[in-house]
């Protein structure tokens, strides 16, 4: 039992938001997925700050799973595993991302003694299995937990002993201590993409803000093309938040990964004489000269 207590003590850790959080990098970040996921209203977002009200925090870990950038450190205490199965509980609903990650880490069934599962679980399981089916991986099954609920006094104490041992066995670092970066689902499916970036080349002014601020290096420039490596996208919204032209959209699309290429040309601005890149070869002025108020005195004319 003392072994169990020391395990429980070491599992009681506060959550911490690290510097990968969009809010700490991008003043214009609108990300609030962690706060939206928290059922206990323990996370408060104000401009670039996120405060955790520890008295309200229930250590459920929903924020850890929801963060697209794996910026929240902590241990998920609300999930229990029995060997290769996730134990069903009506107190939480896993996300598709979460089930996919567990599947890749060896979980292949949901164990329950109440079938059918509630509708939210069923929906998530169905969506997860659709993705697994698409990539020819075995589906997550539902298996019955055949435990006898009526126990003698001796049986009760024996079962307590069994549960304690089981807890120690299941609270293993491999299952519970998922490292911060391991909550990025894209890491587990290197040949697939979960999101597709759509760039509106009519609106894009080639300001490079998306290239600068995308922490996952989705945008690159190579051989006269602006490219998006869609498989790296985690849907953090930094690019859509930073793009002042509203030229970027990120849509959910699970498929074999592909790189999207946009051809650009380099022209010389007819007004200021400076070289600029554009997706419209016929464009004669750079964006600054093009957008300048014609009533202002031009330093170049
Ligand atoms: S979900 Fe992650 S990136 Fe978004 S605000 Fe919360 S900690 Fe920051
Ligand atoms: S492409 Fe946009 S949404 Fe995707 S990871 Fe980069 S900044 Fe985030």
UniProtKB/TrEMBL annotation:
Its cofactor is [4Fe-4S] cluster. The keyword Iron-sulfur applies. Residues 48-77, 195-223, 224-253 form the 4Fe-4S ferredoxin-type domain. Signal peptide: none annotated. Gene3D superfamilies: 3.30.70.20. It holds the Pfam family Fer4. PROSITE patterns: 4FE4S_FER_1 (PS00198), 4FE4S_FER_2 (PS51379). Keywords: 4Fe-4S, Iron, Iron-sulfur, Metal-binding. One of its GO terms (molecular function) is 4 iron, 4 sulfur cluster binding. The keyword Transmembrane does not apply. Ferredoxins are iron-sulfur proteins that transfer electrons in a wide variety of metabolic reactions. This is 4Fe-4S ferredoxin-type domain-containing protein.
């Amino acid at each position: 039992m003392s072994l169990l207590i020391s395990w429980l003590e070491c599992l009681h850790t506060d959550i911490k938001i690290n510097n990968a959080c969009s809010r700490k990098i991008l003043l214009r970040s609108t990300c609030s997925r962690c706060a939206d996921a928290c059922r206990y209203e323990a996370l408060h977002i104000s401009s670039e700050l996120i405060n955790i009200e520890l008295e309200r925090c229930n250590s459920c870990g929903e924020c850890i799973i929801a963060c697209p950038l794996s910026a929240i450190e902590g241990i998920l205490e609300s999930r229990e595993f029995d060997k290769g199965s996730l134990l069903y509980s009506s107190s939480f609903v896993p996300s598709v991302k979460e089930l996919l990650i567990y599947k890749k880490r060896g979980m292949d069934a949901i164990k329950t003694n109440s079938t059918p599962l509630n509708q939210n679980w069923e929906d998530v399981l169905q969506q997860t299995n659709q993705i697994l089916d698409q990539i020819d991986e075995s589906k997550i099954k539902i298996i019955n937990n055949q435990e006898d609920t009526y126990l003698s006094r001796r049986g009760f104490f024996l079962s307590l002993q069994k549960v304690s041992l089981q807890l120690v066995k299941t609270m293993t670092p491999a299952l519970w201590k998922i490292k911060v970066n391991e909550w990025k689902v894209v890491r587990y499916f290197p040949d697939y993409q979960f999101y597709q970036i759509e760039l509106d080349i009519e609106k894009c002014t080639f300001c490079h803000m998306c290239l600068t601020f995308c922490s996952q290096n989705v945008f690159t420039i190579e051989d006269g093309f602006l490219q998006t490596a869609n498989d790296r996208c985690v849907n953090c919204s930094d690019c859509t938040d930073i793009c002042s032209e509203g030229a970027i959209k990120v849509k959910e699309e699970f498929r074999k990964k592909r790189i999207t290429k946009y051809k650009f040309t380099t022209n010389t601005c007819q007004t200021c004489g400076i070289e600029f890149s554009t997706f419209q070869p016929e464009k004669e002025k750079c964006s600054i000269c093009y957008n300048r108020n014609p009533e202002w005195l031009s330093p170049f004319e």
